[in-house]
Amino acid sequence: MSNTQIFHDSESDLAHKAGWLTKRVVIYGILILWTVICLFPIYWTLTTSFKLAPDVMKGNMIPWVDYTPQWRGWKSLGLSPDTIGMESTVREEFLKRFWNSTVSALCSSALAVILGSMVAYGLSRFSYRFGFMRNPDVSFFFLIQLILPPVGLARPFLVLYKELALLDTRIGLILLYTLTVLPIVIWIMRDQFQAIPVELEEAALVDGLSVWGAFLTIIVPIALPGLVAAFILSLVLTWNEYFFAALLTSTDAKTLPVMVASQTGSQGINWWSMAALSWAAILPLIVIGIVLERYIIKGMASGAVK
Amino acid sequence: MSSDGDLLHVVTLDNITASRVRFGNLLKWGGLAFMIACFAVLGLSEAGAFPLEFETWRLGLFGYLVWATCLCMAQVVLRGEQGKRTLFILPGVLFVVAMVVFPLLFSLGIAFSDWNLASPDGRQFNGLDNVRQMWGDPFYWNALKNMVYYTLAIIVEYAIAFGLALILASEIRARKFFRVAFLMPLMLSPVAVSWMIGKSMLEVRFGPLARLARSLGWDSPSFFGSPEIARLTIMIMDAWTFIPFMMIMILAGLQAIPKEVQEAAKVDGAGPWRNFWEVTFPLMLPVSITAILIRIIFKLKLADIIINVTSGGPGGATDSVTSFIFREYRDRSNVGYGTLLAIVYLILIVVAITIFMKLVDRWMNPRYLK
Questions:
Q1: Burial, B161: exposed, middle or buried (Cβ in 10 Å; 0-12, 13-18, 19+)?
Q2: What is the ipTM of this complex?
């Protein structure tokens, strides 16, 4: 008796189920296709850095199946297990560029977040009047910097920095990067501060804190996730910056993207070493992207949701 | 100074004595005088009328820094509580003024002069010659035309980004994994991307994409051979890096739409197609406009990929304005002319974006009153 099925799905219900299944298949198909599109170049670069010339020529894709991975690319950078203990000029060079990139990205992002969040807080809480400029004008003045094309500033900066002896220094680069990410920080932080109720500060002021005290001890801790988001987004933009770095630095302050770009043209192409170099250049951001994805999305979404 | 319209009202009794005012004024004007003195000394030594020689203009920089600090301090000393508020935005303003206004004024001077770094004469004022040269420069107009094409490609990028965001917002498993994977291209530096994809994967003989194209029936794939295909390849590479950006913004917008609205439409008998076009899409318009606007701004700066992959070739077909001026600077050291081109570009951008925003404003407001 237990095998007898009493209730049957009607024809229309079965059709619905089939339709649901095809929809699922299509959706996951698109998702997986796009994942492959996004991740394949990263995978390709990583695997190429372990290939020898014939492997590259044959277009072998899967390590240990198509070809045996070798440390060739990393050896040329001085970063493979057997060369890591030895002297290597390439590694020195690479580490110097890496350090330049790190310092200029971190410092400029920090500076932009400090200046930008102060401005954003001021604009979201008080009404200013400087001559004809009122709050909307002030905030327009900052956001218009986003539109400014880098080419418009590049040459004047080259001349100015030359006269100020700031050419090819990290400080010069940091100042310029701060300028380029400042509008984005202000834009993100203004949204963050507007979302915080004013009553919090009013309570703090009643309790005897000054405006700055309330800002630093009450508001900044609350807005910390937003600050981190703005910081990470600036970090991504400044780490990847190429245009100004290529024009304004030559030997001392050269950053990683410039190093990667300058390798491309010279003496044929060493596929494996280029792949290793590119991979090393993008690795920090891949890590940041995976670990701090939440903040990046928060930062970019802040303009979208009001 | 009134505090009308302040969100945060502060009432304090500032007890500003006469000596405090004197001290404040001393700071304010003393700083200014110091800066002017610095600039004057620099100018005089440049003209040779001052006994001391300066190698650099750093003195002027210090002068500006001293003045900026004095001005900030004077705000608090002179105006108490109101001054403390000004202090929030004053450092930012002073920084941007120093970094933008000076160089821009400077660049106006450069733009109207003949200044080739290779020539021994140095900088010479040549009036409107550069403008005339620009008028007759086919490569510049070509680059501007390319920028129009590149900007139009945003429509396709937007459609793809919207589709992906819709899928990500629907009920799927492993959403976090897909979100991270989709975000990845945005994190990569354009220079590394141009090597990884442009040079390596699109390599004609053994790049994986060339192989794929061959197996799909394209006998001799060449991604940078003809002008149209080269431009298309650049567009796709740029789209690859920036689609995640639009996708994330649209996704955030989608998640902010209350579920009830769509359910109500469903109850009223709207199918998924009508539901999308008459409920979701109109609700998403403001977000879409913001996303597209920011994307346009980033697109107008497009250069890194072009410089590194094609350097404008074949025959200038892929040149963006930025990459064109970059080469004008670096390869031909043509400072004056390049700067004029940059300024013209800046003016064009500002005009175009203002018109775009006005149009959007007019088009949106009558229908969706906020």
A1: buried
A2: 0.84
**Do B181 and A157 lie within an 8 Å CB cutoff?**
no
Q: If we measure between CA atoms, which residue out of B146, B177, B197, B181 comes closest to residue B303?
A: B146
Q: Confirm whether B156 is domain-assigned.
A: yes
Whether B192 and chain A come into contact, CB under 8 Å, resolves to yes
Q: Would residue B333 be called left, alpha or beta, if left means φ above 0 and alpha means ψ between -120 and 50 degrees?
A: left
Gap from A86 CA to chain B (nearest CA, Å): 27
**Residues B165 and B44 grouped into a single domain:** no
Domains in chain A: ranges and CATH: 11-73 (no CATH), 89-301 (1.10.3720.10)
Buried b (16+ CB within 10 A) or exposed e, B57-80: bebbbebbebbbebbbbbbbbbbb
Residue range B252-271, pLDDT digits in tens: 888 888 888 888 888 888 88
Domain boundaries, position B95 = 18-111
Neighbours of A248 (CB within 10 A): 22
Q: What is the DSSP string of B172-213?
A: -SSHHHHHHHHHHHHHS-HHHHIIIIIIIIT-TTT-HHHHHH
The count of domains in chain B is 2
Could you identify the residue written with the tokens 């390798």?
A263
**C-beta atoms of B191 and A146 within 8 A:** no
**CB-defined contacts A:B, below 8 A:** 304
Chain A interface test: which of B101, B167, B195 (most A C-beta within 10 Å): B195
Residue B115 C-alpha, separation from nearest chain A C-alpha, in angstroms: 11
B6 belongs to a structural domain:
no
A150 preceded by a cis bond (ω within 30 of 0): no
> Residue A242: which of B55, B188, B304 has the nearest Cβ?
B304
Cβ-nearest to A164 among B58, B99, B248:
B58
DSSP3 helix / strand / coil % (chain A, rounded to 5): 70, 0, 25
Whether residue B325 contacts residue B341, with contact meaning beta carbons closer than 8 Å, is answered with yes
Give burial (CB, 10 Å; 0-12/13-18/19+) of A222.
middle
Same domain, B172 and B232: yes
pLDDT tens-digit series, residues A165-224: 888 888 889 999 999 899 889 888 888 888 888 888 888 888 888 888 888 988 899 888
Yes or no, beta carbons of A286 and B187 under 8 Å apart: yes
| CA pair distance B299, B241, nearest whole angstrom | 11
Tokens of B318: 């892929």
In a domain, B297, yes or no: yes
Count CB neighbours of B85 within 10 A: 25
- Note whether residue B369 is domain-resident: no
Best residue of B10, B12, B187 to probe chain A, by most A CBs closer than 10 Å:
B187
Q: What is the DSSP string of B59-103?
A: HHHHHHHHHHHHHHHHHHHHHHHHHHHHHHHHHHHHHHIIIIIHH
Q: Do B204 and B251 reside in the same domain of the chain?
A: yes
- Please state, in angstroms and rounded to a whole number, the distance separating the CA atoms of residues B275 and A42: 38
Same domain, B267 and B344: yes
Chain A neighbors of B198, CB-CB under 8 A? none
Residues B83 and B150 in one domain: no
Query: What is the pLDDT, as a whole number, of residue A195?
Result: 83
Q: Assess whether B223 and B302 both reside in one domain.
A: yes
Tell whether pTM > 0.90: no
Are residues B222 and B73 part of one domain? no
Q: What are the pLDDT digits (tens) for B276-295?
A: 888 888 888 888 888 888 88
